[in-house]
């Protein structure tokens, strides 16, 4: 378990929402509905009066946190030797292209591909132009 939380591994700490913000309140509502065993289709529907971009952002960050946690538990078993290709079964091979270092789709071992992917997603989530964090404070009830 110690290796799962090693910062040098792919595992990353959860992105948190600042208490008192609208996104924090939406996150609490999303968590409550997802943890209650409710129909998922109903759980992800936009609550009345809420901003669709904020609602989607909350779910994207939550999904990233969950995937990151899941991957963190299996990454020690997927090495460059045991997972030399990033694939989705025998019919699909994923190749990395970022137009910076990898200008063309490039076959990579699964751990390297996942590290690049998780870094890229984290950069998107932390980009204030894509996911602004200062949407506004909620009024006290």
From TrEMBL:
Keywords of this entry: Kinase, Metal-binding, Transferase, Zinc
MF annotations from Gene Ontology: kinase activity
SUPFAM superfamilies: Mob1/phocein (SSF101152)
Source lineage: Eukaryota, Metazoa, Chordata, Craniata, Vertebrata
Protein name, as recorded: MOB3B kinase
Gene3D superfamilies per record: MOB kinase activator
Presence of keyword Kinase: yes
Species in which this protein is naturally found: Pitta sordida (Hooded pitta)
Entry binding sites for Zn(2+): 78, 83
Entries under InterPro entries matching the protein: MOB_kinase_act_fam (IPR005301), MOB_kinase_act_sf (IPR036703)
Stretch forming the signal peptide: none
